[in-house]
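Researcher: Quick test of sequence recovery. Tokens follow.
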């Protein structure tokens, strides 16, 4: 079976509110996911413009506070959106479990995508830890 998505999970002691606040602000994506974006700027119609290596694409951010989810979506084919699907769960004993699922681009190595995702999640938690100070 060919994998088309990859999911990684990380947990830490930082409260969901702090991580959620970071995720809700797409302009902060380059701070924790530099492989995805060099810069993220507000655009029209409540969307965002992502700049990466001189290229640009539109990003839609879907935020659901009741379920602690943030999805970063872009058009991947005509009429089809995909992207990063992020879930924040309470960690027993305190803190947060962060789960992110990404598509694996057709020309990419799943193991490399997984390593980048793990680095991004670690950077997100480190940034959240600094924010709470």
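Model:
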């Amino acid at each position: 079976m060919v994998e088309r998505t990859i999911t990684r999970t990380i947990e830490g002691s930082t409260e969901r509110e702090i991580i959620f606040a970071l995720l809700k602000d797409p302009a902060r994506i380059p701070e924790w996911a530099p492989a995805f974006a060099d810069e993220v700027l507000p655009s029209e119609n409540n969307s965002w413009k992502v700049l990466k290596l001189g290229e640009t694409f539109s990003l839609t951010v879907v935020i659901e506070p009741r379920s602690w989810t943030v999805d970063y979506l872009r058009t991947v084919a005509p009429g089809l959106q995909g992207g990063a699907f992020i879930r924040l769960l309470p960690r027993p004993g305190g803190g947060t479990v962060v789960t992110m699922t990404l598509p694996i681009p057709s020309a990419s190595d799943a193991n490399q995508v997984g390593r980048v995702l793990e680095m991004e999640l670690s950077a997100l938690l480190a940034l959240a830890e600094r924010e709470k100070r």
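Residues 5-131 form a domain with the Alpha-D-Glucose-1,6-Bisphosphate; Chain A, domain 4 fold (CATH 3.30.530.20).
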